Amino acid sequence: MRDVDRDEESKHRSPILFLAPAFLIFVFFYAGALIMLFVQSLQTYTPGRIVQVSQSFSFANYIIYWGRNLVYYGFLWDSLRIGGIATVISVLIAYPLAHKISRTERALVKKTLLTVLVATFFINSIVKVYSWVIMQGDAGLINEILTALGYSKVRFLGTDEAVIIGLIYFLFPIATMALIGPIKNVDSTLEQAAGNLGATNTQVFFDVTLPLSMPGTIAATLLCYALAVSAFIIPMFLGSGIVLMMSNIIFSRYSESFNYPGGAALAMVFLATILFIAFGINRLLTKRLKGFGYG
Amino acid sequence: MDRFHLYRMIDLLGRPIVLVVLLLTLFFLILPIVITIIISFDPRSYLAYLPPPALSVRWYESFLRNPNFMQGLRTSVVVGGVSTLISTVLGIFASYGLVRYDFRGKESLNNFFLSPLVVPSVVTGFALLGFLSTVGIRGSLERLMIAHVIITLPYTIRTVSATLTGFDRSLEEAALNLGATPVRTFLDVTLPMIKFGVVAGAVFAFAMSLDDVSVSIFLADAFSSTLPVNLFAYMKSTFDPTVAAASVLLMGFTVGIIIVIEKVMGLDKFVGIGV
Question: Distance between CA atoms of B184 and B186, rounded to whole angstroms?
Fold first, then answer.
């Protein structure tokens, strides 16, 4: 009887049964798909087929897209730059709201802010994009206000700024939600102690709250950055074919030329860049911050 | 002026500045939504200056009478429902394995499960298109469900893990010591304690499934395509306020989500569980 019990227990000790279903699905469909993408990027493009099946493998597609000219580096750079500006602004304006929600004592203020936050988080992305196309269009609200004030109309759609505003609208709720946890986790007695010892609110914020929430803030920023750089429908509509980001370029390999191996070579380099940002930089920064006594 | 007085001054100026930033932020968040709601009742079939000369529900009719959109809505509900169910169950099990056990490579496995959050979704969609064609899964419904399980699993794992980490393990051990089977312990002790994480995960999963364009656009075909993909295609060709009407109806869904969250656990707790 005891041995049976022990068997039961040791079976219960192994996480394999719990992890296997998700793991197998992920390995087969997800890792499988990404490996397949890499294999396809080494194939030669034959028009009219999705999956290429030649026996020879070469880096020809990488040379075509990443070796012979600089056009695609331009699109990659645009994605990193536009995504970067949008991320920095989003996190900067998200921090005060996240701080307010985490620290306010007034129930009504908290509830109102939370409702707006969760609502804007869950509003469908298509709705967000459509709203900004309306706002920024030639007959949109911004131009209506400009003409009412006696200025001439401005063409917003197709500019970097239009895409950046759309991205901020999309990133802001995500950044705020991701920042609330780290700010809440800062022990508020430490803040009170600093205040009691004569620190001003500004000092408390910059010397206690901000440094202690820094690891979480970095994680939130990098998550937003990865999402911003890989944005698809926002640049598609607000960039209106003039501002193109990497996701739009990869999609056009599918929708316009149906060049699967070419798209795969673009996607692999893009993927490597994003993974480096999301995991590599995170590791680097958290290590360095630990060296400075943060986190 | 010494440092102390400088800080005091920043304190005094800081408060109104932060307040103004907060109010501007709220304005920035709410304004586009209000404008979309107004446009959805605008009878003019082109975008023009506000206010509209009259009010009309013709764009709601246009949306509801469009068989393409109705098919998309059905597909979205089916794909969202099935993938949420699968993703929630897988997420509960995987989180339990990840939080309750120690093993080598745990951190890497966790990163692997969460990676669809950072892998560009266009890359995921593009990769799945090639892979699913190769292994012979051609039905668009199956393809969409597989894809949506992959993109929603990070959310269910994160929310369930967050609640699992928070609660006392000794309750489970007590149940086991008192003779409850592991299955009973899980159903009667663990599950009730992580129920908020499970609900939050399911809400995220369904909403993200309904939100997705960039993965689904590669996998949908003309007969079963999701609503956002159909709206995307429509917006590329026509820009009348039908999409505004669709937007308002989708906002109704968002309001529904908020009511459910508020009733089940409260927004505060939900946001605490986090993305």
Answer: 5
What is the number of alpha carbons within 13 Å of residue B249 lying toward its C-beta? Answer: 19
Task: Give the closest-approach CA distance of B96 to chain A in angstroms.
Answer: 7
Three-state DSSP class for B120?
Answer: coil
In a domain, A191, yes or no: yes
Which residue range forms the structural domain that includes residue A181? 70-291
Question: What CATH number is given to the structural domain containing A219?
Answer: 1.10.3720.10
To the nearest whole angstrom, how far is the Cα of A3 from the nearest Cα of chain B?
15
What pTM was computed for the model?
A: 0.90
Out of B11, B254, B255, closest to residue A201 by CB = B11
Residue A59 in any domain: the answer is: no
Write out pLDDT tens, residues A50-69: 666 666 788 888 998 898 88
Residue A27, in any domain of the structure: no
pLDDT tens for B241-268 read 999 999 999 999 999 999 999 999 999 8
- Show Cβ contacts of residue B118 under 8 Å, excluding neighbours closer than 6 positions: A223, A226, A227, A274, A275, A278, A279
Question: Which sequence spans correspond to the domains of chain B?
Answer: 66-239+258-273
Q: What is the mean pLDDT of chain B?
A: 91
Please report which confidence band the pLDDT of residue A13 belongs to, taking 50, 70 and 90 as the band edges: low
Fold of B66-239+258-273: MetI-like fold (1.10.3720)
B137 in contact with A, Cβ within 8 Å: no
Pure H helices in chain B: 3-40, 58-64, 67-100, 106-114, 121-135, 140-166, 170-177, 182-185, 191-193, 195-211, 216-219, 227-237, 242-264, 267-273
Confidence grade of residue B11 (pLDDT, cut at 50, 70, 90): confident
Per the CB < 8 A criterion, the answer to whether A28 and B116 are in contact is no
Summarised one tens digit per residue, pLDDT across range B84-99 is 999 999 999 999 999 9
Cβ pair A202:B272 closer than 8 A: no
Lowest mean pLDDT among A144-148, A207-211, B9-13, B194-198: B9-13
Greatest mean pLDDT among A13-17, A71-75, A289-293: A71-75
Q: What are phi and psi of A30, to 5 degrees?
A: -90, -55
Q: Do B127 and A202 touch (CB under 8 A)?
A: no
In a domain? residue A20 = no
CB contact under 8 A, B127 and A19: no
